[in-house]
């Protein structure tokens, strides 16, 4: 075995170099053996066992890099101190391990390297022993395994090369990449932002002014921005002037704000009268709507003659979702009960639909006063006005048609006969000579509500196909399926599915369920402040409500789009009320993101409801977002109490308290006595929340003392204490109002505040020192004695020790260098304390460790005189 302490770039070396290297290694090893006596026994034993020049035993095999062959016995080397290594001739080698420093001092670098390895090998051996005790690591396949050491070396540094995952064969699977969880992002408040306090960093304009150029939202939905508002694809007409800030009130409702406010107040007043507000487990008020708050209670708010969209919405909800008394005996089978329930629901939907389309039918008849009798009868039948249709048929002399209409809805034989009659007309080509209105009447009576095929033909015999619901709005087209298209025993789900397939496959011949404002002829989309895509056609909220009842897989979030209720995409009024009724009261459907977050919404929320189900199953972020959106809409209209009531429905305690406090803070200017009584009385808000908002507003208006009193009323003693120290105490000190200074901080004696002993208590100690020093001086002058009694002497000693300590910490209490009042107050307090203490204890200030930098010129001169007088007295006493 050949010991190699280094490796060269060339593998071919001469035998003379090998022999000389062996001699050098023997000499270095002999020098190292002299130090073995000074090594610990364990290290000496390990050195003897692992020494590369010792003779191996016969029991241990010898490792060799050479080809297998007859083993050569290594000669035994005798260590003689008298034997020296032959002089070494320097050679130019390209070995990077050679030490230039050794070459400079005249020492053979090869020899020095061998000596270093021989002397400092103990740590490497310990590492080798530890590695031998570990289990063998899993073999890794490296992409650089086939490269030579010379070409495969990382010349730029170890660890800089990315390890690639590779497999040796197709039978070996590549190990999957380690799982790395997604990084969680959280919103950082402005107070905790990294850019806070860097407004003056003019070197980095982005850091200093980055938040100044963003779009910001102000109170009441006010948008604060620079320049003109424009979309990403539009071209602005004016440049953004950084010196002009614009305030734009973004409209959140359609129509007049006063009318929208009245409608919102009407619904929320009824909601509040039926809801119970109580504190949850965290002490935060929470509005819990009762189970009795259903669609019928809201529908009762509208008179029976009201045909508005809002009234029809609640009446449709009453027909589809409100509890229904089937008036059946208890032992009735489940199938029969379900069948009766489906028929009753369909009957309720039929009654609502007939009332909802009456205005459309009447308007259609008024617009065509001279229309033929066929069109008039068909218009009446599309509104399910069968009696009036029979009267028109008899008045026009069509007694047979009146007889057929009077038999509606008839049975299957009745419908088959009518369809057979239509088929005979088509086959014989007679349909081309029959009035179109008559054909449409026969068609719907026969159950054909989509398309009536014509016989075709040309010329006078031409009879085209007729789209039955052509010219009708979606509610009347849906009514054709309810009253004529489907059998009497069909359910609401069957009728809805038939109509949905019809209008989706009719390619425009059937009216799609557009919202009420888009069906209105007076609606002009160009005048709307909201720009909507031309291909966007939101469904009507009435249609979505029917879909929610008919389709169990329909999500609640899919039917509560604001554009389905109003022309404004930010009007969440009716959407929020529908969510409360459907989810929180009737438990019909809920948001898909509701999860069990372990949130307690009230004192008795853990108990089961009337039907044995828990009150709230978890937390829904979509529900909280909906409440916040509606509250912002009410806040913009100035309805602060109503907005607060909506925020009381937020399910998370922390989010509910935060949202209400932020609302009060933005609306603090409107919190008069009447509104305060309403918030604290009806909505049961803590008075401390209201006072906190008023305190922030008073501080913003410059009323510091009013903010201080409001913070105390809100039990926010830390804020009041900080305000008293920074703003009120300096003024009281400068005015020398000790009574005011005492009253400011006496409020905190019974309430723990942060840093009380080194902030607020300092001013009370200052008042006490100023008062007692004056009283003790008057007492000594009155008693006409220079030696007080024991009690006064003890108090004077305490004051002599406490006043210098008080003076030394004053700069740390009033430490704002930008406020000149702090510096003036520190100077005044220092001067007053030193002057009054000097009157009763002239040498106390001189003997105290107060630095002269804290004293003014007069006090310094007085201190010099006092020190001179003290030295004079000591000199007299010594003499």
Automatic annotation (TrEMBL):
Residues 376-697 form the Nuclear pore complex protein NUP96 C-terminal domain. It comes from Fomitopsis schrenkii (Brown rot fungus). This is Nuclear pore complex protein NUP96 C-terminal domain-containing protein. Signal peptide: none annotated. Residues 57-67 have a biased composition (Acidic residues). Residues 1-95 are annotated as: Disordered.
């Amino acid at each position: 075995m050949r010991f190699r302490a280094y490796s060269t770039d060339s593998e071919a070396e001469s035998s003379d170099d090998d022999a000389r290297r062996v001699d050098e290694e023997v000499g270095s090893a002999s020098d190292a053996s002299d130090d073995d006596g000074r090594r610990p026994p364990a290290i000496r034993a390990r050195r003897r066992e692992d020494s590369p020049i010792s003779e191996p035993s016969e029991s241990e095999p010898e490792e060799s890099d050479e080809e297998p062959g007859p083993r050569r016995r290594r000669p035994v080397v005798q260590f003689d101190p008298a034997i020296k290594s032959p002089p070494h001739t320097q050679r130019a080698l390209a070995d990077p391990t050679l030490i230039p420093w050794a070459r400079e001092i005249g020492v053979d670098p090869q020899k020095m390297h061998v000596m270093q390895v021989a002397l400092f090998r103990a740590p490497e051996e310990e590492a080798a022993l530890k590695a031998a005790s570990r289990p063998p690591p899993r073999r890794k396949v490296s992409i650089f395994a086939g490269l030579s050491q010379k070409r495969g070396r990382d010349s730029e540094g170890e660890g800089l090369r990315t390890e690639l995952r590779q497999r040796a064969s197709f039978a070996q699977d590549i190990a999957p990449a380690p799982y790395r969880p997604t990084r969680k992002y959280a919103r950082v408040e402005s107070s905790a932002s990294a850019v806070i306090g860097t407004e003056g960093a003019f070197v980095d304009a982005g850091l200093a002014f980055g938040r100044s150029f963003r779009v910001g939202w102000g109170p009441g939905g006010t948008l604060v921005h620079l320049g003109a508002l424009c979309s990403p694809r539009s071209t602005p007409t004016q440049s953004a002037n950084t010196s002009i800030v614009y305030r734009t009130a973004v409209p959140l409702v359609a129509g007049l704000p006063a009318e929208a406010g009245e409608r919102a107040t009407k619904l929320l007043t009824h909601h509040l009268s039926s809801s119970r507000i109580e504190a949850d487990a965290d002490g935060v008020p929470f509005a819990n709507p009762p189970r009795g708050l259903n669609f019928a209670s809201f529908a009762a708010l509208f008179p029976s003659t009201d045909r508005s969209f809002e009234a029809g919405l609640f009446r449709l909800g009453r027909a589809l979702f409100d509890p229904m008394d089937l008036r059946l005996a208890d032992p009735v089978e489940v199938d029969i009960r379900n069948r009766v329930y489906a028929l009753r629901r369909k009957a309720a939907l039929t009654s609502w639909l007939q009332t909802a389309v009456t205005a459309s039918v009447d308007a259609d008849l008024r617009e065509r006063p001279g229309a033929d009798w066929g069109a008039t009868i068909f218009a009446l039948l599309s509104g399910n006005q069968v009696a009036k249709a029979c009267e028109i048929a008899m008045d026009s002399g069509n007694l047979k048609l009146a007889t057929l209409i009077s038999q509606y809805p008839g049975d299957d034989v009745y419908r088959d006969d009518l369809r057979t009659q239509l088929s005979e007309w088509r086959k014989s080509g007679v349909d081309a000579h029959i009035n179109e209105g008559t054909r449409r009447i026969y068609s719907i009576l026969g159950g054909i509500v989509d398309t009536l095929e014509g016989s075709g033909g040309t010329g006078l015999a031409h009879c085209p196909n007729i789209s039955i619901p052509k010219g009708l709005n979606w509610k009347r087209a849906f009514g054709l399926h309810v009253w004529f298209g489907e059998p009497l025993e069909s359910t609401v789900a069957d009728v809805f599915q038939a109509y949905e397939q019809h209008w989706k496959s009719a390619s425009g011949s059937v009216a799609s369920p557009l919202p009420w404002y888009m069906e209105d002829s007076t609606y002009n989309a160009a005048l709307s402040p909201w720009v909507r895509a031309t291909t966007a056609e939101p469904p009507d909220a009435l249609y979505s409500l029917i879909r929610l009842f008919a389709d169990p897989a329909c999500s609640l979030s899919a039917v509560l789009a604001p554009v389905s209720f109003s022309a404004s995409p930010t009007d969440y009024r009716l959407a929020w009320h529908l969510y409360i009724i459907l989810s929180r009261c009737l438990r019909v459907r809920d948001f898909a993101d509701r999860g069990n977050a372990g949130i307690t919404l009230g004192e008795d929320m853990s108990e089961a409801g009337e039907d044995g189900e828990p009150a709230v199953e978890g937390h829904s972020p979509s529900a909280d977002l909906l409440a916040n959106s509606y509250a912002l809409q009410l806040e913009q209209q100035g309805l602060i109490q109503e907005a607060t009531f909506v925020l009381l429905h937020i399910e998370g305690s922390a989010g509910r308290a935060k949202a209400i406090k932020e609302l009060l803070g933005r609306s603090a200017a409107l919190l008069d006595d009447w509104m305060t009584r309403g918030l604290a009385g009806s909505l049961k808000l803590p008075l401390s929340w209201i006072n906190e908002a008023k305190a922030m507003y008073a501080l913003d208006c410059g009323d510091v003392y009013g903010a201080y009193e409001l913070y105390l009323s809100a039990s926010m003693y830390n804020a009041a204490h900080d305000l008293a120290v920074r703003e009120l105490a300096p003024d009281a000190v400068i005015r020398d109002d000790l009574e005011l200074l005492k009253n400011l901080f006496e409020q905190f004696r019974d309430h723990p505040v942060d840093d009380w002993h080194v902030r607020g208590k300092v001013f009370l100690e200052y008042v006490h020192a100023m008062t007692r020093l004056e009283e003790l001086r008057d007492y000594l002058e009155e008693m006409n004695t220079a030696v007080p009694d024991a009690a006064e002497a003890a108090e004077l000693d305490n004051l002599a020790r406490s006043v210098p300590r008080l003076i030394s910490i004053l700069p740390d209490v009033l430490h704002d260098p930008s406020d000149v009042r702090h510096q003036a107050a520190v100077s005044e307090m220092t001067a007053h304390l030193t002057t009054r203490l000097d009157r009763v204890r002239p040498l106390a200030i001189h003997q105290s460790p107060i630095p002269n930098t804290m004293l003014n010129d007069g006090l310094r001169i007085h201190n010099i005189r006092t020190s001179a007088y003290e030295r004079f007295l000591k000199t007299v006493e010594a003499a």
